[in-house]
């Protein structure tokens, strides 16, 4: 069978999707993945065919994902992408005649294209599943989004209008605006476990919880790394919102005092020279291969993005979390509820408090035990093979 995959141009959305694509390829299916050129090598490595998309709006780039701090900016980005990609996606479906369209949960154009062409369509969800009950339950963490929406009513209603027109222009009845952030299908694959998902019982059988997608990403681990029986601290604050020099300086200062071998991924937006003197126990690089680091790490200092949380707990590694956007805050609260990490709320970063939090994670066994318990549920959820089983059962 033939599958078309559509996703946002973002590592956090593409990485788990690639594991599913690889499993489909291994089972003898043809997979076409549409994205921007920077992802070509990663796509082809898993055996899928890369197809380049043309984004005529200069504001739709991987770098501009860094400004998506709220529901309104995320919605605007998705609408811009839909304007560029909906027509070409429908045309590609007509040309390639796939058996199934697979899109991520923010790909509005994927959902509309599936409805318009009457093709079986699946949504892959790289975050928690969301519904009305979950949104209401997380109101305290979402207040910033609500305030922004009501303080910019013209922008808010303009986005709602554009969302509705995206459907009506294709002769379709638009769903509730809330669906823009989930793009629900008859089959929705969620990359976490039922145990980790808040209010899991409020989601019907169209939601399948398969856990994180862990696969060979063809990434080399650092040449010098601590022995497995020695403590190791891994730091990565994501590929999008990680450009605060002050945060990294504070973290590095804390790591110096702690004295444990530490690896800090600083991303591509920070010049190492901005960070000052780097202590001998701290190694910095634009990027470290996350899965390889987590196999060795004792704790993970993270922004609490869903993929990072999933992967850390998959390997039984407790987290110290410094979330930035609302989704990450919800993840951090959930990890803390399960006892598998610490949500660090003090901003700007208080170095002595950060040191205390790291030492607690290192020295109090309850965190590692809780992380291993959550990890066991994640590992037993089925992963890519289970996701593919659900997809094939759905379209057969």
UniProtKB/TrEMBL annotation:
GO terms for molecular function: hexosyltransferase activity; UDP-glycosyltransferase activity. Keywords: Glycosyltransferase, Transferase. The keyword ATP-binding does not apply. SUPFAM superfamilies: UDP-Glycosyltransferase/glycogen phosphorylase. Pfam families: UDPGT (PF00201). Belongs to the UDP-glycosyltransferase family. PANTHER family: EG:EG0003.4 PROTEIN-RELATED (PTHR48043), FI06409P-RELATED (PTHR48043:SF145). This is Glycosyl transferase. It comes from Candidatus Roizmanbacteria bacterium CG_4_10_14_0_2_um_filter_39_13. The lineage of its organism: Bacteria, Candidatus Roizmaniibacteriota.
């Amino acid at each position: 069978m033939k599958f078309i995959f559509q996703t946002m141009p973002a590592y956090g959305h593409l990485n788990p999707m690639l594991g599913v694509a690889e499993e489909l390829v291994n089972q003898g299916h043809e997979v076409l993945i549409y994205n921007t050129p920077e992802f070509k090598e990663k796509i082809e490595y898993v055996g899928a065919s890369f197809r380049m998309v043309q984004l005529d709006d200069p504001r739709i780039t991987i770098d501009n994902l860094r400004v998506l701090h709220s529901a309104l900016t995320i919605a605007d980005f998705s609408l811009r992408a839909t304007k560029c990609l909906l027509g070409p996606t429908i045309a590609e479906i007509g040309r390639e005649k796939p058996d199934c369209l697979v899109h991520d949960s923010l790909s509005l154009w994927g959902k509309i294209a599936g409805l318009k062409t009457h093709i079986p369509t699946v949504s892959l969800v790289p975050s928690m599943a969301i519904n009305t009950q979950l949104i209401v339950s997380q109101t305290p963490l979402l207040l910033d989004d609500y305030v922004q929406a009501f303080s910019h009513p013209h922008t808010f209603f303009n986005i709602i209008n554009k969302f509705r027109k995206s459907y009506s222009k294709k002769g379709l009845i638009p769903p509730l605006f809330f669906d823009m952030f989930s793009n629900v299908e008859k089959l929705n694959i969620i990359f976490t476990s039922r145990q980790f998902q808040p209010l899991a019982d409020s989601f019907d059988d169209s939601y399948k919880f398969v856990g994180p997608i862990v696969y060979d990403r063809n990434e080399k681990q650092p040449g010098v790394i601590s022995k497995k029986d020695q403590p190791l601290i891994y730091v990565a604050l994501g590929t999008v919102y990680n450009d605060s020099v002050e945060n990294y300086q504070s973290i590095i200062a804390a790591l110096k005092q702690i004295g444990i071998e530490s690896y800090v991924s600083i991303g591509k937006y920070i010049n190492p020279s901005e960070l000052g003197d780097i202590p001998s126990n701290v190694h910095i690089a634009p990027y470290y291969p996350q899965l390889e680091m987590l196999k060795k790490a004792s704790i993970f200092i993270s922004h609490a993005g869903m993929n990072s949380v999933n992967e850390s707990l998959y390997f039984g590694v407790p987290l110290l979390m410094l979330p930035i956007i609302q989704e990450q805050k919800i993840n951090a609260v959930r990890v803390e509820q399960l006892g598998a990490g610490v949500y660090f709320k003090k901003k700007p970063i208080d170095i002595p408090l950060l040191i205390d939090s790291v030492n607690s994670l290192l020295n109090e066994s309850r965190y590692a035990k809780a992380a291993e318990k959550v990890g066991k549920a994640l590992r037993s959820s089925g992963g890519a093979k289970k996701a593919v089983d659900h997809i094939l059962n759905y379209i057969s």
